[in-house]
C-alpha cells in the first residue's frame, strides 16, 4: 500500500476507534428522529419543493436582495458590511471590537465564523473570545475543531467531557452526570456573558424586507449573546438572505426535523437588530432595567468568500441552497463511522461539505475527503431542499482529477480507453475502465481468475492499484450473459410484451446467473425478451469522477436502446445503480427528450414483475415460496428510487416469509470497498447488516440482495451465500 493510502487508512482507523462510537450513536439517533418527525408533516415532499423553490429564487435574485437588505438594516439603525473574504471580514470585526474597547467577545454557534477563523483574528489582537454554545465551548476548552455542522462535539462522550472539565477547571466536586456538566457550563458561561463587551452571532436566515435575523438553536445562549452586550455583530454568508419573513415558514418547519429529528428546534429567535430592549448593567443591580440605556450598535457582516463565484458556477450553485441542517451527514453510513474529522475539510463536513470546501477553501481541501462520498444517494432524499449532493461531489471529484497532471499525460491519454486527462490516478482509472477489464477477464477466464487469485498478482494490485488483498475479487465468466442468450433457442407464444433486459457490466461478465433468472422469469410470464449488445451505463467511471467518460457511455447506451424504445419495448434493468443512472444522472448527459424517453420506459426487474402480476400474469408460472424464510437487503439507490417495496410485495405474494434489513448501506459501494485505504471502513459499515442477519430470527434465512455491491459485501460478511431475489422466483432451467 502506498504511503498516502497507509496514512489515510490509519487516520480512519484511529477515528473509528476513538470517536466512532459517539458519532455513530448520535448521528443514528438524529437520523431515526428525522424519519419519525417528518411523518408528522402533511406534505413533506411538497414542503421540500417549496423550500427548494424559495432558495432557487433567492440565489437568483441575490444582488437585488442584498441591496434591499442594506436599506432595511440601515433604516433600523444598523450597519451592513459586505466582506470579500475571510481576511476582510476579520479586519472589519476586529475594528468594530477595538472601537468599543472590547476586552471580551462572546459568540453563539456559527459555522461561518468557523470558516473565517474569527476567533484567531480577535485573539491575535488581544481580545478574549468565548464560545457560548455548549458544544462549541467544550471544543474551545479542548482546543479541537467541530466534527459536525449542527452538533460540533458529537464525537465526545459524556465521560470524555467530564474528564475534560475536571482536568481543566478542577471543580470542588468532580463532575460526572450530564446534569452536573450542563449546570456547571451554564453558570460559568452566564458569568462570561455578563462581562462581555461585544456579542457575536451567526444567522440561519436573514430577511431582506425587514433585516430580521432568524436564529435556530437548541440552547438559549444565542439570545443572551445577542442582547446582553450593547454591541451585536452578526456574521453570515451572503447565501443566507431570503426575501421576506413570510418565506421563513418552510425552513423553520424543516430544519429541526431534518437535522436532529425535533418537531421544532428548542429556540427559534427572530431578531430585528438593533433591538430596543435596555442593556443590563450587572454592576448596578438596584437600577430598574426600564431606566437603563437602549443605545445599541448592530453590524451585519455578510461574507462572500467565494460564494458569488459559486453562484455563477452551474455545478456548484446548488450548494448555496444548503440550510446547514446536517441531514446528509446523519444519513451517511461512512460519516456515522468517522465523523467530520475524517469526512470533512477546513470547516465543512458531511455530504454537502465537499461543495462548500471546494467553493470557499479550494479543491485541495475538498480532495482530502471527497472520496468518502460513495454516491449512494441516500442524502438526496434526506436533504430538505432536494440538493443533488452526490452530483456535486462527482463534479468536484472530476475537477480534482483534472488538476492532477504529470509529464507523461500525453502517453496515458493515448493508451487508455477513456476520455479523461492523463493526471487521473491509476486506481481511479482502473475502476473507471472496469468495462474493459471485465471484457479481458471474461475472454481469458478461467485463467484470468486463477492469476488474479494468486499472491504475487494480489500484492502487485495492492501496491499499484490500491486493491485490498483481503477483498475477494469478482470471478469473470467465460460465457457472458449475452453469449448465453445468443446461443439459446427460446420463443414465447403470443407474447404480451417485449422487454429488453439490459446487460449491465456485472450481470454480463460476473453475475450471469441473475441475468439468466431474469430472462426465464419474464418469459414464464409471457414476455418476449431481447438482450442487446450495448455498453455499460457509465456508473463505473462516474463513481471515479470521470464525467467525460460517463457522458460517452450514456450517449452510446441511449443509441443502443433507442430503436427498442421506438418499437415500444420496455427496458428492464437488473442492477439498481444502472437504473438510477437512467433515471437520474443521464439527465445531465442526454438531450431532454432522449432522457425522458429512456427514463420513462426503464424498470427495475422486480418492479416490472410486480407490474406484470398486477396486470394478470400467471403467478403460478414462477417458483413459489411455500413459507420459505428470506432475509432481504435492498440497494441504496433502489431505496432512493422508492422501489424496494416491489421486491417485498412480489416475494410475499409468492409465499415467501420476508424480513427486510433496515440498514442504510451495506458499506461496499462499488469500488469503494475494494480500495485499501477504505477497506476497514467498508467492513465496519457492514457490521450492522451482518449483525441484523445473524439474529435468532434471521440467521437461518436465505439471504437476498438487489445490488451487486450488496451481494459482494454480504458474501464477505456472512458464512452463507447470497443471491439476487429474481433467482428465488425464477422457474427452473
From TrEMBL:
Matches recorded under PANTHER family: LACTATE UTILIZATION PROTEIN B
Organism this protein belongs to: Haloferax namakaokahaiae
GO molecular function: 4 iron, 4 sulfur cluster binding; oxidoreductase activity
Domain 4Fe-4S ferredoxin-type: 365-392
Native organism taxonomy: Archaea, Methanobacteriati, Methanobacteriota, Stenosarchaea group, Halobacteria
Listed name of the protein: LUD domain-containing protein
Keyword Transport: yes
Domain of life: Archaea
InterPro entries the UniProt entry points to: 4Fe4S_Fe-S-bd, 4Fe4S_Fe_S_CS, FTHF_cligase-like_sf, Helical_ferredxn, LUD_dom, LutB/LldF, NagB/RpiA_transferase-like
Keyword terms, alphabetized: 4Fe-4S, Electron transport, Iron, Iron-sulfur, Metal-binding, Repeat, Transport
Amino acid at each position: 500500500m502506498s504511503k498516502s493510502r497507509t496514512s489515510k487508512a490509519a487516520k480512519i482507523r484511529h477515528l473509528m476507534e476513538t470517536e466512532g462510537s459517539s458519532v455513530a450513536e448520535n448521528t443514528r439517533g438524529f437520523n431515526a428522529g428525522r424519519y419519525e418527525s417528518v411523518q408528522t408533516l402533511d406534505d413533506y415532499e411538497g414542503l421540500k419543493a417549496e423550500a427548494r423553490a424559495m432558495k432557487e429564487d433567492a440565489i437568483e435574485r441575490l444582488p437585488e436582495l442584498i441591496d434591499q437588505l442594506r436599506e432595511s438594516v440601515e433604516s433600523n439603525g444598523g450597519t451592513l458590511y459586505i466582506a470579500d473574504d475571510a481576511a476582510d471580514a476579520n479586519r472589519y470585526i476586529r475594528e468594530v471590537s477595538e472601537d468599543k474597547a472590547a476586552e471580551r467577545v462572546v459568540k453563539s454557534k456559527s459555522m461561518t465564523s468557523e470558516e473565517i477563523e474569527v476567533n484567531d483574528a480577535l485573539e491575535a489582537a488581544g481580545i478574549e473570545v468565548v464560545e457560548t454554545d455548549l458544544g462549541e465551548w467544550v471544543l474551545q476548552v479542548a482546543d479541537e475543531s467541530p466534527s459536525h455542522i449542527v452538533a460540533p462535539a458529537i464525537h465526545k462522550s459524556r465521560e470524555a467531557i467530564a474528564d475534560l472539565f475536571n482536568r481543566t477547571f478542577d471543580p470542588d466536586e468532580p463532575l460526572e452526570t450530564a446534569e452536573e456538566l450542563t449546570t456547571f457550563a451554564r453558570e460559568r458561561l452566564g458569568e462570561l456573558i455578563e462581562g462581555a463587551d461585544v456579542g457575536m452571532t451567526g444567522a440561519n436566515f436573514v430577511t431582506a424586507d425587514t433585516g430580521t435575523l432568524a436564529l435556530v438553536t437548541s440552547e438559549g445562549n444565542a439570545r443572551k449573546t445577542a442582547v446582553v452586550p450593547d454591541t451585536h455583530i452578526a456574521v453570515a454568508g451572503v447565501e443566507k438572505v431570503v426575501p421576506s419573513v413570510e418565506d421563513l415558514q418552510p425552513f423553520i418547519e424543516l430544519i429541526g426535523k431534518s437535522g436532529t429529528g425535533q418537531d421544532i428546534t428548542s429556540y427559534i429567535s427572530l431578531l430585528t437588530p438593533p433591538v430596543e430592549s435596555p442593556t443590563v448593567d450587572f454592576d448596578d443591580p438596584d437600577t430598574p432595567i426600564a431606566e437603563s440605556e437602549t443605545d445599541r450598535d448592530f453590524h451585519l457582516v455578510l461574507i462572500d468568500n467565494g460564494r458569488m463565484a459559486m453562484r455563477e458556477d452551474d455545478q456548484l450553485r446548488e450548494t448555496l441552497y444548503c440550510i446547514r441542517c446536517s441531514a446528509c451527514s446523519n444519513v451517511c453510513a461512512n460519516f456515522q463511522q468517522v465523523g467530520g474529522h475524517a469526512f470533512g475539510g477546513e470547516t465543512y463536513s458531511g455530504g454537502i461539505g465537499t461543495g462548500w470546501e471546494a467553493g470557499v477553501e479550494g479543491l485541495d481541501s475538498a480532495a482530502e475527503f471527497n472520496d468518502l462520498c460513495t454516491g449512494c444517494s441516500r442524502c438526496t432524499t434526506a436533504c430538505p431542499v432536494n440538493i443533488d449532493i452526490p452530483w456535486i461531489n462527482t463534479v468536484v471529484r472530476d475537477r480534482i482529477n483534472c488538476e492532477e497532471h504529470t509529464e507523461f499525460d500525453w502517453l496515458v491519454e493515448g493508451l487508455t480507453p477513456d476520455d479523461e486527462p492523463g493526471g487521473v490516478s491509476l486506481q481511479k482509472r482502473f475502476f473507471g475502465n472496469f468495462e474493459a477489464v471485465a471484457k479481458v477477464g471474461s475472454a481469458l477466464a478461467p485463467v484470468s481468475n486463477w492469476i488474479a487469485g494468486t499472491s504475487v498478482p494480489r500484492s502487485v494490485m495492492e501496491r499499484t492499484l490500491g486493491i485490498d488483498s483481503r477483498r475477494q475479487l469478482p470471478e469473470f465468466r467465460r460465457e457472458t450473459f449475452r453469449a448465453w442468450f445468443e446461443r439459446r433457442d427460446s420463443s414465447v407464444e403470443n407474447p404480451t410484451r417485449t422487454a429488453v433486459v439490459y446487460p449491465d457490466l456485472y450481470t454480463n461478465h460476473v453475475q450471469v446467473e441473475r441475468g439468466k433468472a431474469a430472462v426465464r422469469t419474464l418469459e414464464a410470464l409471457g414476455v418476449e425478451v431481447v438482450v442487446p449488445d450495448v455498453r455499460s451505463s457509465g456508473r463505473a467511471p462516474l463513481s471515479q469522477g470521470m464525467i467525460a467518460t460517463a457522458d460517452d457511455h450514456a450517449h452510446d447506451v441511449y443509441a443502443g436502446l433507442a430503436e427498442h424504445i421506438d418499437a415500444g419495448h420496455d427496458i428492464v434493468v437488473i442492477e439498481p445503480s444502472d437504473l438510477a443512472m437512467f433515471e437520474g444522472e443521464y439527465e445531465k448527459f442526454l438531450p431532454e427528450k432522449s432522457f425522458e424517453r429512456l427514463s420513462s420506459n426503464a424498470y427495475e426487474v422486480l418492479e416490472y414483475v410486480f407490474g406484470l402480476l398486477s396486470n394478470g400474469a400467471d403467478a403460478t408460472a414462477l417458483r413459489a415460496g411455500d413459507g420459505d424464510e428470506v432475509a432481504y437487503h435492498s440497494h441504496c439507490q433502489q431505496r432512493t428510487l422508492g422501489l424496494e417495496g416491489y421486491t417485498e410485495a412480489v416475494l410475499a405474494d409468492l409465499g415467501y416469509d420476508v424480513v427486510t434489513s433496515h440498514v442504510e448501506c451495506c458499506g461496499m459501494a462499488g469500488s469503494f470497498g475494494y480500495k485499501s485505504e477504505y477497506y476497514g471502513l467498508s467492513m465496519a459499515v457492514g457490521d450492522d447488516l451482518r449483525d441484523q442477519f445473524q439474529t435468532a430470527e434471521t440467521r437461518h434465512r436465505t439471504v437476498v440482495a438487489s445490488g451487486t455491491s450488496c451481494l459482494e459485501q454480504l458474501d464477505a460478511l456472512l458464512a452463507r451465500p447470497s443471491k439476487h431475489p429474481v433467482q428465488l422466483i425464477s422457474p427452473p432451467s
